[in-house]
Design brief:
It is built from 31 helices and 33 strands. The protein is α/β, with parallel strands linked by helices. The protein folds into three domains: 294 residues, Rossmann fold (3-Layer(aba) Sandwich); 213 residues, 3-Layer(aba) Sandwich (Dimethylsulfoxide Reductase, domain 2), CATH 3.40.228.10; 114 residues, Barwin-like endoglucanases. The strands form ten sheets. A six-stranded mixed beta sheet has the order 6-5-18-17-16-7. The protein has a six-stranded mixed β-barrel with strand order 25-32-29-31-30-33. Strands 12-9-8-14-15 form a five-stranded parallel beta sheet, sandwiched between helices.
Length: 778
């Protein structure tokens, strides 16, 4: 079989059929069974199911960041979590013999599935340009190469230290400390591509970069607004909260261009009676299909309706709360009144009647919680939209009390913990002062590079060393070809990983692959088995302990790898790197002195369910310049495309986790054996002469005027608002240029690609030649 094709692809059976079954339920059970069989995990898999997300010796799911159940649920799991864990626990191994048999050039022709399907990495490898292969290197040899290369740089800012959300808190703290002791704040991370807008908006509005709601608030809210979230695939354990809310009579409003499976019905697998009786529970009371990027217009429409209602019902707005705790209300009221209903309808893509339905739900609710994900944040106006969420909540005092508040959904385990524990290219002076005082270093004060800035700096030879802790940077970042070219210009690229991926093949002049322990594996150090801590989406911090023997005796933990790099790069460092690795409690003792909310860390993290980091805004203490919660009066953005363009959003399939692709199927969207597709509104297809399932060419124009194109994609008619389209990342990342990022958050515009879609030309017909931008794909 050609490795170019995912083994689960079935080109002869490409198709789509509307999914009409409940989310999760028996479909998830069948999928899990197939995964356990395929990965030959019939013993470790079931064992992992009963240890995942449990206290007292359990490990935290390496998938999403949804909080653990607070009531002692023994099966607090989901289909995607089990896929993720069994993918990590596979018995397959990538050895030195494998690398000797396959050149990097050959491997670069393999599919993403085929690369990761080879199994777990087993020992450190270094790139040999003479043979175009990776060859073994000792751990000390790898550390020495990193140390020498970093020492040879003209400036510490010529290195960038990237991390994905898989890194535990202890490793995160060590990593940022190493970078800052080395002398740079170049700490790009996956938050730069996902929830940077959320953090900046919440910081500006409330004085905290996080949501204030916790799981108990989800369990007591009268109304839940779920915006820009594909929960059934990206946070499947949310289905339990939605089903419970529906049963208790809460109103559940889903806002998304696509009606995803989580916005219909579910059968929660651990509810055995419902499973046995095939009894689904609703997960929504209202679905609103906004135009892509139209969420802010919907929110402003809700606010406008509430303010109009307040003219004859003073209780519609909680004036006592607004007057006592907020600033900027009058300016916000004026901008709402000045926005016409016609404009709100045009920008949201919704009729006024539907906006008023949502406003009625909000007005009748005593306790409202608003949750959102990347469908809200990955737009030019993402910061303004999240601030509009806060505006709406403030109008009726939905902050600082049970069942209410803002609740962003982080899509990757511990991505929030990374930021909490110091991975931030824009650190505060307060944090740097405490780090300097406790750790005895002189950290740099200038802001560093984020993800977009790092890619640009690699192209301009301003970043010459790239070190990545987890993730698949080349595929996760926008403008894939441009990112690859930048990586190839580096003097050294280092990737700490569990499996082979595309970024290992898009290497610098010298390159290292360093294999690490997975979340499921036991971490043996000098003082015994170690636990690491993680933070979920709702600020709960708890311990995770691996259950399985490591995949290879040559693997090191992420803290040990960071300490080895640090000792080689900082030979004169007085930081006790070796002592900290012997016992992670020593790391936590230091973290407790540096990080707000981590006081008495070692004791509190061992409490049942761990501990919640305090949120001042939840206590109605606002660390803003005014000392109050701040209304925002930002103008409404124009989301309506021009000149026949469509607004295309990239997304994950159900059988995918970030850049890891388990198969070419997408069960909840009814897609079988296909990823090179674009979902379109049927009227948009007819207007362009595109037949259902016919081939199309997709062209985008970047902010800098350059063009990018994908050819031969299959167009599928789908229930989307007119003017909108959707397709899978990372394949469609090539359409997002290096200049296509938000000026508000610096996030790539992955949900806001202006694209022209036309029928593909016959193979022998001449094609128009586009300008050849960096990043263009022929």
């Amino acid at each position: 079989m050609s490795k170019r094709r995912d083994r689960k692809s079935r080109p002869e059976s490409h198709g789509n059929e509307a999914y009409t079954h409940p989310a999760a339920g028996w479909g998830a059970a069948k999928s899990v069974t197939r995964v356990l069989l395929r990965e030959r995990a019939l013993i470790d898999g079931p064992r992992a199911i009963f240890l995942m997300n449990h206290e007292n010796g359990g490990f935290d799911c390496p998938g999403c960041a949804w909080p653990d159940d607070t009531k002692g649920l023994r099966l607090d799991i989901c289909e995607n979590g089990i896929k993720h864990v069994t993918w990590e626990m596979t018995p397959k191994r990538v050895t030195r013999e494998f690398f000797a048999a396959h050149t990097v050039s050959e491997l670069d022709g393999w599919s993403e599935f085929a690369l990761e399907d080879q199994g777990r990495l087993t020992e450190p490898m270094v790139y040999d340009p003479d043979t175009d292969t990776y060859v073994p290197i000792s751990w000390q040899g790898a550390f020495d190469l990193i140390g020498r290369t970093l020492h040879d740089l003209d400036s510490p800012d010529e290195a960038a230290f990237y991390t994905s959300g898989r890194l535990g808190n202890e490793a995160t703290f060590l990593y940022q400390l190493m970078a800052r002791e080395f002398g740079t704040n170049n700490l790009p991370d996956c938050s730069n591509m996902c929830h940077e807008a959320s953090g900046r908006a919440l910081q500006a509005a409330l004085g905290t970069g996080k949501g204030t709601a916790d799981l108990k608030d989800w369990e007591s809210a009268d109304a839940l607004f779920i915006m820009g979230v594909n929960a059934a695939s990206n946070a499947p354990r949310m289905l339990t909260a939605l089903a419970e809310a529906y049963r208790r009579g809460a109103q559940i409003v889903h806002v998304n261009p696509l009606v995803e499976a989580a916005a219909t019905r579910t059968i929660v697998p651990h509810e055995m009676t419902d499973m046995a009786l095939f009894k689904p529970t609703g997960t929504s009371t209202l679905n609103l299909q906004v135009r892509s990027g139209g969420d802010m217009a919907l929110l402003r429409g809700i606010a406008k309706a509430v303010l109009e209602e307040a003219r004859h019902d003073p209780k519609a707005v909680d004036r006592e709360f607004v007057d006592r705790y907020t600033d900027g209300f009058e300016e916000y009221r004026a901008v709402c009144e000045a926005t016409t209903w016609d404009e709100l309808e045009r920008q949201s893509g919704l009729p006024r009647a539907d906006i008023l339905k949502a406003a009625d739900v909000y007005s009748r609710s005593d306790r409202t919680l608003i949750s959102w994900c990347l469908g809200v944040s990955q737009h030019e106006h993402g910061v303004d939209t999240v601030r509009e969420i806060v505006n709406v909540l403030l109008l009726r005092g939905n902050l600082g009390r049970e069942g209410a508040g803002p609740s962003p959904v982080r899509g990757h385990s511990n991505v929030q913990g990374n930021r909490t524990c110091g991975i931030d290219h824009r650190p505060t002076a307060q944090f740097l002062d405490r780090l300097a005082g406790v750790c005895g270093i002189d950290p740099p004060r200038e802001h560093g590079l984020d993800t977009v800035g790092t890619v640009r700096a690699m192209h301009e030879d301003r970043v010459k060393v790239f070190i990545g802790m987890g993730g698949n940077f080349v595929l996760a970042a926008p403008d894939t070809a441009y990112t690859r070219e930048g990586m190839a210009r580096c003097e050294l690229t280092v990737h700490v990983s569990t499996k082979l991926n595309r970024s290992h093949l898009a290497h610098g002049r010298r390159a290292l692959i360093l294999p690490c322990l997975g979340r499921t594996e036991r971490d043996f150090q000098q003082r015994g088995i170690q636990a690491t801590s993680v933070e979920d989406s709702m600020s709960m911090v708890h311990l995770s302990v691996g259950m399985k023997k490591p995949a290879s005796p040559h693997l090191l933990s992420e803290p040990a790898i960071i300490a080895g790099m640090a000792r080689a790069a900082l030979p004169g460092s007085t930081t006790p790197w070796e002592s900290w690795i012997e016992d992670y409690d020593r790391i936590r003792d230091t973290m407790a002195q540096v990080l707000d909310g981590f006081e008495d860390f070692n004791r509190r993290v061992r409490l049942p369910l761990g501990f919640r980091i305090r949120q001042p805004a939840r206590e109605l203490v606002f660390l803003t310049p005014s000392g109050r919660a701040e209304f925002s009066a930002a103008p409404l953005p124009d989301t309506v495309p021009r000149d026949g363009a469509l607004v295309l959003q990239t997304m994950r399939s159900h059988d995918q986790w970030n850049t890891t692709i388990y198969s070419d199927d997408d069960r909840y969207r009814g897609i079988t054996g296909l990823r090179t597709l674009v979902l379109m509104n049927a009227d948009d297809m007819r207007a362009r002469g595109i037949r259902d399932r016919s081939l199309v060419d997709i062209t985008s124009t970047s902010k800098d005027g350059t063009r990018r194109q994908l050819t031969g994609y299959q167009a599928i008619a789908y229930d989307l608002p007119a003017g909108c389209a959707a397709g899978y990342m990372p394949e469609m990342n090539v359409l997002i240029g290096a200049a296509d990022y938000s000026t508000q958050s610096d996030q790539p515009l992955m949900k806001s690609v202006r694209a022209h879609i036309v029928p593909s030309s016959p193979p022998d017909a001449p094609r128009p030649v586009a300008a050849e931008p960096a990043g263009a794909v022929p």
